[in-house]
Amino acid sequence: MQTLAFDIAATFIDDAAALMTGLGRALLKFAMAPIDRIANACDIAGVLAERRATFRMWRANRGRGRREGHRFSLLGRFSPFRHLAHLT
Question: Are 85 and 55 within 8 A, CB to CB?
Fold first, then answer.
């Protein structure tokens, strides 16, 4: 019976974390929309589209070849500027 109670509690915590992550992403997307519109309006040569494609390709391949013991940076995950990486 303890295992079932633990599984229910763990599922609730995982669902709450996923809900908070989704709400945070939606809020960040809403807050960053004006900046993205300005960046797209100023992109005359199509550089942003090329960088976004490169970033998506890098993101798809980043799971391959990971070394053991690689530390995950919490600041990078929750940084408000991480979605602007394609602008640099």
Answer: yes
DSSP string, 27-39: HHHHHHHHHHHHH
Least confident of 1-5, 63-67, 77-81, 82-86: 63-67
How far, in Å, are 18, 28, 54, 64 from residue 78 at the CA level? Answer: 14, 10, 22, 23
In sequence order, which residues have a C-beta less than 8 Å from that of residue 18 and are 6 or more positions away? none
Give the single-character DSSP code of 41. H
Q: Around Cβ 51, how many Cβ atoms within 10 Å?
A: 15
- Contact 76/82 with Cβ under 8 angstroms? yes
Q: Which tokens in the block code for residue 18?
A: 């996923």
pTM for the whole structure? 0.50
Structure tokens at 85: 């990486």
State both tokens at 55.
């970033």
